[in-house]
Design brief:
Layout (H helix, E strand, L loop, with lengths): L4 E3 L10 E5 L2 E4 H19 L5 H24 L6 H10 L4 E2 L2 E2 L1 H10 L4 H23 L5 H9 L5 H27 L2 E3 L5
Parallel strand pairs: 1-6
Antiparallel strand pairs: 2-3, 2-6, 4-5
Helix pairs in contact: 1-2, 2-5, 5-7
């Protein structure tokens, strides 16, 4: 089945608060702006004069689209994150710690400064963990073939094990990229570029 991705002026069935539609799911302008603000702050600091605003806006929406596609795929795989697992991951986040321990006051203050409720933040963290689980399954399905191992050995690298690890890591990331591209091809995606 061939699916089309639209960019542009199609009338959205979800109203004016939506910047993108992915199959039956949406990305709100609020979600896009929050992610954009957080990422832009970081990349402006790193890239300085080389920061390309227009290109970056497109990258953020692409990232959010991919996140939704992976969430759909994780749901199809029937992956879940238990409450205890979510809590454990949040307790480990250094931004919420004082003297190496989780601090509820810092947690509330940081979330408030980002205009997030604990429920919304925890839902975002749960989504991130579920997506990571799905990607881990895809990565784990990648292995070096005997021919690839022989090629590495023939090249006589200084550190054979390190070269094998590097080659396998590259292969795993290529598998994630290919899987993501396949998810995009199967989906119907509409992005309101005029809102970027």
């Amino acid at each position: 089945a061939i699916s089309l991705a639209w960019v542009g002026n199609k009338q959205s069935s979800h109203g004016d608060n939506v910047i993108a539609e992915i199959d039956q799911d949406t990305i709100s302008i609020e979600e896009y702006r929050r992610v954009y603000k957080n990422m832009a702050r970081f990349y402006r600091e790193i890239l300085k004069d080389q920061f390309d605003e227009k290109k970056f806006r497109k990258q953020v929406v692409d990232l959010l689209v991919e996140q939704k596609l992976w969430l759909h795929e994780a749901d199809r795989m029937k992956l879940q994150v238990a409450d205890a697992e979510l809590k454990g991951e949040i307790l480990k986040l250094p931004g919420f710690q004082k003297d190496g321990q989780f601090n509820a006051e810092i947690y509330k203050r940081v979330l408030a400064s980002e205009h997030l409720t604990p429920e919304k933040f925890e839902a975002q963290q749960r989504d991130e963990l579920i997506v990571n689980k799905a990607k881990t399954l895809i990565r784990q399905s990648s292995a070096l073939t005997p021919a690839e191992i022989a090629e590495i050995e023939l090249s006589k690298p200084q550190d054979l094990n390190q070269e094998r690890e590097n080659r396998l890591a590259q292969k795993k990331e290529k598998a994630i990229h290919a899987y993501t591209m396949a998810l995009k091809q199967k989906a119907t995606i509409f992005i309101k570029e005029e809102l970027l």
